[in-house]
Amino acid sequence: MKLIIAIIQPAKLNRVQEALSEIGIKGMTVTDAVGFGNQKGHTEQYRGTEYKIKFLPKKKIEIAVPSEISGKIIDSIMESAGTGKIGDGKIFTQNLESAVRIRTSEQDTDAL
User: Fold this and answer.
1) Per-residue model confidence as pLDDT tens digits over 97-111
2) Which residues contact residue 53 at a Cβ distance below 8 angstroms, ignoring those fewer than 6 apart?
3) With CB atoms counted within 10 Å of each terminal CB, which end of the chain scores lower, N or C?
4) Nearest of 2, 3, 19 to residue 60 by alpha carbon
5) How many helices (H) and strands (E) does the chain have?
6) pTM of the model
């Protein structure tokens, strides 16, 4: 099993969710996040004072999946979240040792 973690632009969340639903993904965890990378933030003005915004809002998506479909999911996220511009985000993949569905005690891929 794999744990896919994607950091994307907030405006792309619905598009990513729809694309993942189309390929059969029935659940994911989404968290509000802030961060910076190559984008390095931006400057805003408020009441005549300039403020440097270093941390930009992002969405963090976590999806536990069987290993054999992880490539398909990554491709779907890249296609639906990508603009080709700086700040599109990142995707990380980790091996997932085990998973348990609390309600039924199902384990590993049965729990997904």
Assistant:
1) 999 999 999 999 999
2) 41, 42, 43, 44
3) C
4) 3
5) 2, 6
6) 0.85
